[in-house]
């Protein structure tokens, strides 16, 4: 869920609930105009926002890289390794990062039901750019524009999936091929039943083909066989492609986009009862001193600002320059050959949904200093009031004497 400010005469915010399809594109679920964001509307954490807050204090490129690698970690031992590496650069930076609940931004503690390991809001930024022009219109005009854009998008995406040459989405196949390349550097041991011990570097993982689980949690989390699972399946002469989750299939994608928005008659046909009439959100005074009126440049989209040419669909930009690419950094690093020692055995963790809680982390969150001021008594308030009045009288008398 995310919110974006309206730019028309009627101020307020557009709150949107957005999902993601198997091509990692946004899928709009619901949207509504509200007066402002409140605690009752939404509470969430996103690695992109944590990064902007955390990096305002810690700007080192290596620290930022390790921060993202912490978020991308899939099992706790790997997460702890990243924290220790970051701690060698700055223990305070690690403790500041752990101030944010790790269950909200680190894959290690995500549940594995949705088969999605996203830790950022890249696709939300893409949606905000998609409706940039509509946000400048009046509320009804804006909502109509969004409805029409969503209606057309559902039809266009359905037509696109029918052109797929493979049974699974392109994004899914890219990750699968990366995992298959990493699997070449793994070694496997088989117990003769369904249990496999697969080693990559110092970590030895257990793979269960019956339950489709691996202790690295990547298979559970993404629904795509991880490198260890691929190595185990290949050992049995099986086909790893058959173990990819149905969520990535063409059939699933077509079902997702089979629900369409229906046509709506023009405004002159709208019949609104007095009891159902809606008013625009009330004007809310913003916090802080009002900004002075000044000539400003017209708002432009990110594509114009950074002079980026988006391929294929100009109305659906994939804003990937804001967040580092996991595929070009972490996954490429994992493809490098390592000496397989298997000295560290990784166990299964998590409840029935795959989620778990953090424990025994090498660093503890940094405690924030309390900024609460002491209570002010009635006598102190009265004394302060009298002092202010006295100062005003002195200023007034001084001004009269000068005149």
From TrEMBL:
Q: Does the keyword Zinc apply?
A: yes
Q: Where is the composition biased (Basic and acidic residues)?
A: 383-392
**Composition bias, Polar residues:** 373-382
One GO molecular function term of this record is: zinc ion binding
Q: Quote the InterPro entries the UniProt record gives.
A: MULE_transposase_dom, Znf_PMZ, Znf_SWIM
One Pfam match, given by its short name, reads SWIM
Q: Give the residue ranges for region: Disordered.
A: 342-403
Keywords for this entry?
Metal-binding, Zinc, Zinc-finger
Q: Residues in domain SWIM-type? A: 196-237
Q: Does the keyword Iron-sulfur apply?
A: no
Q: What is this protein called in UniProt?
A: SWIM-type domain-containing protein
Source taxonomy: Eukaryota, Viridiplantae, Streptophyta, Embryophyta, Tracheophyta
